[in-house]
Amino acid sequence: MKKVLFVASECTPFVKTGGLADVIGSLPQALNRTKKIETRVILPLYDEIPKKWHLKMSQITTIPIQLGWRKQSASLYSLVYEGITYYFISNDYYFSRKGLYGYYDDGERFIFFSKAVIEALPFLDFKPDVLHAHDWQAGMTVALAKILNPVEQLKTVLTIHNIKYQGIMPHHTFADFFNLPLSHFGGFEWRGMLNCLKSGLYHADKITTVSPSYAEEIKQPYFGEGLHPILQERSKDLLGILNGINIDEFNPKTDPHLFMNYQYSRMKKKENKIVLQEKLGLPVNADIPLYIMVTRLEEQKGLHLLQHCLDEFLQDDVQFILLGTGNIDFETYFYNASKRFPLKLSVHFIFDDALARQMYAAADFLIMPSKFEPCGLSQLIALQYKTVPIVRETGGLKDTVVAFDEMTGEGNGFSFTNYNAHDLLHVLQSSLRVYQHSTYWKTLLKNVNKSQFSWNHSAYEYITLYHSLSI
Q1: Contact predicate 131/156, CB 8 Å
Q2: What are the pLDDT digits (tens) for 301-338?
Q3: Beta strands in 378-422, from DSSP E residues, in sequence order
């Protein structure tokens, strides 16, 4: 049985800022269920992790860590949760802060974490065959594993969850933090800067990303965020494996947050819609098409497109609920729009998981017109809750949503190709027309009911990848 150590900066249920945490929380479980892989996870021990988890941890050891002239120490802890062993790297100076990211010394913090992971390997009761790092915060562990070679024959994998974030620092930080000969600088440097993600791309045995389409996209200048040349060079080692979701957690049949649990019943979905309309002060009408967005309010999510066509779309007999936090300009726009359309638009600038799930359960359509989307989680949850996704054809959205064809009856959603507000408006209006056509709507819903994106299939793709490293 192969042993795989995941290295990441966040993981449910301990600490989360985004979809990375969901992957690290779910994929090891799916891998271990196959009985072909034993997976463990190592994370920073943030002060943000609830105290109930701290109390369950056992200390293994404390390790001295040298960062240039700085003498730090890393305390290593472990706990077992749902059959998975989790290790935690503790250092009060770097991780006893509010929030996970956004500090001026984030680069230093995660260089420390990466060095501590490598230094901790001899102290684990687990000798991994594969070190699988995730995103820039862990990318340097791949480089250091290769350079320091702490475990003979250790293979490495780096997964890119979002290439936009790379951990870029001034070039002098290499000498300042790494205590390595300058001959290694080329493996860390990119365009005159130290680039943490590049260090992993350069040194990893294999590179994966979170959907097949995104793996192709990031080799191009538009999506590659400046790293496309190295990804083109390493194309034969780059693989896109589609993310899944935890279908036990996101299950409308058992979800405790819903007003009414259901599996396939459209009547019970309508009952969820009625209660949500009452809760949010929208006119109560079970038959009015309800559109939702659950998103970060960022340009990446296609909100500029929606700004340019929202007023025209809301002339139709529809309702729209927006949930998310982020850019103040988007908040201001949608707040003002809700004042213009108080009976059609309800906006909520908060993070509220219960409300999000209630929206998925009540909605007929999810709008997700992303500028780019490595995989996407919202469209997978929507399909699980029998809600029809409307997406732009990019990254994982392209791989999971097939445009409904009225002639053939195939497809589980709606999509458009060009990043253009007119095209978004056109597909929104098309979705409304299908909703109003009972035969088309029933056919589309049957296709949605068949759509499922659990981790099971993806887990076996990772297993194949891990075993290929031994060849």
Answers
A1: yes
A2: 999 999 999 999 999 999 999 999 999 999 999 999 99
A3: 388-392, 414-416
The pTM of the full predicted model, rounded to 2 decimals, is 0.93
Q: Which helix (H) or strand (E) holds 119?
A: helix 106-120
Element at 277 (helix H, strand E): helix 266-280
Listed in sequence order, the residues at least 6 apart from 161 whose beta carbon sits closer than 8 Å to its beta carbon are 19, 20, 23, 134, 135, 209, 210, 374, 375
Asked if 402 and 412 touch (Cβ cutoff 8 Å), the reply is yes
CA dist 248 → 64, 208, 251, 253, 455 (Å): 41, 25, 6, 9, 11
pLDDT tens digits for range 237-262: 999 999 999 999 999 999 999 999 99
What are the structure tokens assigned to 410, written together?
């195939």
Q: How many whole angstroms separate alpha carbon 58 and alpha carbon 423?
A: 55
Amino acid (1-letter code) at residue 420: N
Strands 189-190 and 193-195: antiparallel
All domains of the chain in start order, with CATH: 2-244+456-468 (3.40.50.2000), 266-450 (3.40.50.2000)
User: Which amino acid is located at 244 in the chain?
Assistant: G
**Strands in 295-392 per DSSP E:** 319-323, 345-348, 365-368, 388-392
